[in-house]
Amino acid sequence: PAPRTVLLTGAAGGLGTLMRELLPSYGYALRLFDVRPIEGEPDAIVADLADREAVREAVRGVDAVLHLAGISVESTFEKILAANIEGTYHLYEAVREEGVGRVVFASSNHAVGYTPAPGQGEPPVPVGTPRRPDTFYGLSKSFGEDLAQLYWDKHGVETVSVRIGSCFREPSDVRMLSLWLSPEDGARLFHAALTADGVGHTVVYGSSANTRLWWDLSGARALGYEPRDDSERFAPALLAEHGELDPANPAHTHIGGRFLTDPPLWAH
Ligand code: NAI
Ligand code: 15L
To answer: Which of 137, 151, 205, 225 is catalytic?
Structure first.
């Protein structure tokens, strides 16, 4: 049966806010979870993923979890360890203990960030490409994917790990034209990931049907995802503002963009 009650972790965040708007029309009742309170949502669970008892209570009785909570950019190893690595472990332990069957995990392009972007005429990057995290953040997403595989193989918990490109209302630079996931396509993809049969642990890329797409969407399409958007309508303005991608700049020629070249936090 299609899942109905879904725990949305990270519900206060950018993507969580978009999904709070878009997913109810697919018939989901969302239970909200975030370490930050959400204005106008008094029933949201305000707790840290570090609080195992709170996490266990939050997953009790839900049909599936859409796991968006965590640090969403590079940070210190210690902070990434607590929120993304230990936090995701706590989530999976709770899911196992409470018998929840399905997780959709917000992985990221930064798990494969050091992968060169395909040149014109080259095939898109396949899901099976070796992981090449570009940050501790990307490393934590790589961990999350392996954790999901372990909980499928050992405990029968199903996961779709969605390596999200850039899910914002609009792409804001030229690289994002290749990775953009429109919020509406994001909801379509998460809905497909929540409902597809027999996923075991499946890793897919998450983008719209962009003209300049860098990676292979066939895995996502196999779940039933049919993207309807294309970032190309934003291309003229972004190219006029930023110019074409510079082949000498690693931040322009690799999937992970600026995450390859931004100075580490401790250098600021
Ligand atoms: P965000 O930073 O806006 O939201 C993350 C939310 O998680 C925040 O509301 C934060 O309070 C919450 N959170 C952080 N640590 C927590 C903890 N220990 N316990 C409970 N809640 C905690 O990020 P955004 O953009 O909404 O991303 C959501 C998820 O999707 C993240 O896991 C991110 O890594 C992933 N992702 C997002 C992409 C995007 O384009 N927006 C691209 C690739 C991955
Ligand atoms: C991510 O993983 C981040 O969570 C998001 O903030 C963006 O930086 C996105 O990737 C991106 O690469 O554009």
So the answer is: 137
